[in-house]
Each structure stands twice: as C-alpha cells, then as structure tokens.
Amino acid sequence: MSQNRAPILKLGGTLIASVQEALMDADLLGLRDGLVADVKRYRATGVIIDVTILDVLDSFAARTIRNIAQMTRLIGARTVIVGIQPDVAFSMVQLGLTLEGIDTALDLEDGLALLDLELGNTRRD
Amino acid sequence: MTYQEKLLPEIEIKGEEVAQRKAFLQFGDADIAALESVNEVAQHYADSVIDDFYRHVMAFPDTKAFFSDPDVLAHVRRMQKAYFMRLTQGNYDQEYVANRVKIGVIHERIGLPVKSYFGMYCFYLRTVLQRLRQEYKDMPEQALTVFNSLIKLTFFDMGLAIDTYIESRERTIQGQQEAIRELSTPVLLLRPGLLLLPIIGLIDTQRARQLTEQLLRSVRTNRAKVVVIDVTGVPSVDTKVANHLVQAVEAARLMGATSIVTGIAPDIAQTMVKLGIDLMRITTVGDLQSGIEEAERLLGYTVVRNAKASGPCDKELP
Fold first, then answer.
1. Is A51 touching B (CB cutoff 8 A)?
2. Is B14 helix (H, G, I), strand (E, B) or coil?
3. Best of A65, A66, A90, A95 to disrupt the B interface by mutation (most B CBs within 10 Å)?
4. What is the pLDDT confidence band of residue B174, given thresholds at 50, 70 and 90?
5. Does the B188-301 domain belong in CATH 3.30.300.20?
6. Per-residue pLDDT averaged across B153-177, rounded?
7. pLDDT of residue B140 exceeding 90
8. What integer pLDDT is reported at residue A121 of this predicted model?
9. Quick check: A93 contacting B, CB < 8 Å?
10. Quick one: which of B72, B102, B99, B73 has its CA closest to B87?
11. Mutate to test the interface with B, among A49, A79, A81, A93 (most CBs of B within 10 A)
12. Could you give phi then psi for residue B256, rounded to 5 degrees?
C-alpha cells in the first residue's frame, strides 16, 4: 500500500520517497521497511523524504521519520526531510516534534543540493 | 440601523447578565412597583429638577464646556427629561438596558469624564431626595422606600454606563496593539537566501505566533537558507520569550533554514543564565554585524570593499 501512497524513486545513489497523500500509521511503517530494504539493495548513499503535500505530521510520523533516518544511517545513507510546510512546522514545534539531528531542506531541489554537498564533503574527507 | 446603533457594535449585555446585575443590587418587583408609584409625582418635579441640574452643571467650567452651544443644551435637556422620566416608567428590560448603554456611549464619545458622570448622578439623587421629601411630607417612610429603589436603579444605570466607557477604551487599546504588532514584525531579505528578522518590543504568545508564521512564510517564498534574528530591541527575556524564540528557530530549521540569534544584551544574557534558559541548541553571536558576517560565511558570500569606489577608510577592515 505504501508503494502507492509514497513511491520510492531511485536517482543515482539517492532514493526519493515522495509522499502522495496522507499517510496512515501502517503506510509509514511500510515506507520505513521499503526504504531500508531499498537502501541496502541499491547501495544508496542518500535518502530524501518529500512531505510537501502533508498538512499534518503527528508524533508517530515524526518518530517513524526519525527511525528511518537512524536506520538508513546505520546502513550507509543520509536522510533529508524536505517540503515541511510553514503551518506544519509551526504545529510540530508546538508539539515538541523538532526532528533534532535530522537534516531538513526547503524542497526536493534543496534537499538534493544538500546531499550532494554533504556526500561530496564526506568523500573528500 | 441608526447612527447610535452603529456606535456600539460590540457592547451587548445579555439577558442573563442583566438578571445577575439586578439580583446583585437586590432590585426586584417591589422596587419596580415603588418607582412606578412615583411616576405621576415625578412629572410634577421633573422640570424643576432638570433646571437645578443644568444650573449645577453650568456652574463648573469642566462640565459647562460640553453645553456651551444653546442648541445642544436644548437638545440634551429634552434627552435628559426623557431619561429622567424613564426612571419611573417600569419595564426595566433589555430595551431599557440598550437605551442606557447608548447613553453611556454618547457620553463617552463626547469625552465626558467619569468623575463628572458620577457627580451628575450624585446631584440627581440628592435633588430627587429633596423633592420626594416635599411630596411625601406626611409619609416619610414611603419617600425612603422610593428613594431606596431609585438608588438601586441609578447604580444599575451607572454600572452600564461605566462598562461602555471601559469597553470603548479596551477596544482602542486592542486596535493599537494590533497596529503595533503589524508594524513591528517585518521580515527583510538581505541577500538571496538570507533573511533578517529584527524583533523590537515585548514578545507575547500571540506576537510570537504571528512572528513565527511570518518568518516561515518568508522562508518559503524567498527560499531562505539562513535567518538572522536580531533581538537588540527586545527589552526583556523570560522563560516564555526564550521558548518562543526556540520554537521559531526550530520551525525554521524544519523548513531547512539555519537561524542565528544576535543582539542579546549582557544583562539579558545574565538573566537568561540565572533563569536556567538553555539556548545551546541555537547559534548565537554578539551583534547584528557578526550575525550577518556569520550568515554570509554559511552561504559562501565574501564581502570585498572596493577602495577605489569609496575612498580610504580610517577603520581597518578585516
């Protein structure tokens, strides 16, 4: 089901999960499992989760996103969350869901740029 | 809708509230009956009371100023008589309340001070007491009963009138607060990707919310990567204000923008540490200049001074 609501696209070494409609808790877990499996399968180094269309991000979603970021890091990929809307950002901080330690970017374009920059730096190191 | 009705769009005293006020004043059927019983008598002395009233009012420059125009005076005398007679006509219902509120609004509009308003009521009561004692020479008890009820009704009226004064002031204050809020939350684009948010004045919850929302909208429209929040103009920071600041910074970060807070005054820094406010998660630098330099560094800008164009500079630039 998550494959429909949040299809995972592969672009070079980056996986892009583009959320298409409001996600149920089960969809989120499906997305998590799908991304972790795909990072392993494609040996991806970057993951972008695009939540532009979401008008709400609750604590379960925030926790799952955090888990995805931590899991993918363990298997070698950085995760960036992109497209959090102003209203969503505002209500998230009020609920204390600040996604601390997780990379964020304005939109897909900025997210890809951020990954390029960070992964480029990593390689140089 | 009449002109007066337009004046008071928000002042509305509900039936329940009216009943509560009457109950607190212990204004009941006996009082209504007592007041109605003197209606006829009141017609006798109404004109003389009002004559005395305006003689009194015109004897003081403060109140005289309001009635210097003879036409105005003639008009308010008529209104005054209607008001006066209404006191003894019974039916102290919603319509009565609306009428009293209207009178309060008119007096507030012309700027009649509350002290004069109270003084006028006091004069009324004293003068009427005098008349009642004359009318009920043989029944002093009856005069007192009526006067007792009249005091209740007058205080009921005064309560309504003063409420309109307060309501109107509050509305003015509210309007000004909104104006100040709108004026004082600009989000400025300094360079592509760099926003400046200078905060001036106290931050309360509502303003913090508005400020944050405006910041987030600007981050999106300007595709900002770095935001410099300058708090030089914030006179005091307590735990609440600090939390609002942290929320703004974290919300901006969720949208991919880094924030730099500048201009925390030394004494505010001391208070914050004493209060145990932890801003460790936020980048802070001393002043706005350093903040902008730090932001430019993050964005990869280098500012180079062109000596040819602007001449020598007595201060050595780094």
1. no
2. coil
3. A90
4. confident
5. no
6. 88
7. no
8. 54
9. yes
10. B99
11. A93
12. 85, 15
Its CATH class, for the domain covering B3-181, is: mainly alpha
pLDDT tens-digit profile of B260-271? 999 998 888 888
Domain ranges of chain A: 2-124
Where in chain B do CATH 1.10.490.10 domains reside?
3-181
pLDDT higher than threshold 80 for residue A69: yes
User: Residue B253: which of A85, A104, A111 has the nearest Cβ?
Assistant: A104
A69 exposure class (CB count in 10 Å sphere: 0-12, 13-18, 19+): buried
Distance from CA of A100 to the nearest CA of B (A): 9
pLDDT at residue B314, as a whole number: 59
Tokens of B13: 């005293």
Residue B281: list chain A partners with CB under 8 A.
100
Rg (CA), chain A: 14
A11 vs B11, more confident: A11
Q: Is B315 on the interface with A (CB under 8 A)?
A: no
The torsion of the CA quartet B217, B223, B224, B225, rounded to 10 degrees, works out to 130
* pLDDT (tens digit per residue) in B108-132: 888 888 888 889 899 989 999 988 8
Pinpoint the residues of chain B covered by CATH 3.30.750.24. Answer: 188-301
Sign of CA dihedral A95, A101, A102, A105: positive
| CB atoms A93 and B256 under 8 Å | no
pLDDT confidence band for A42 (50 / 70 / 90): very high
- List chain A residues with CB under 8 Å of B223: 106, 110
- Give the relative orientation of helices B266-275 and B239-254 as an angle to the nearest 10 degrees: 90
Cβ–Cβ below 8 Å for B250 and A106:
no
Tell me, yes or no, if A115 comes closer than 8 A to chain B by beta carbon. Answer: no
CATH architecture, domain defined by A2-124: 2-Layer Sandwich (3.30)
Average pLDDT, chain B: 86
Confidence check on the interface: ipTM exceeds 0.90, yes or no: no
Question: Is the CB of residue B203 less than 8 Å from the CB of residue B169?
Answer: no
Which residues of chain A does B217 touch, with a Cβ-Cβ cutoff of 8 Å?
86
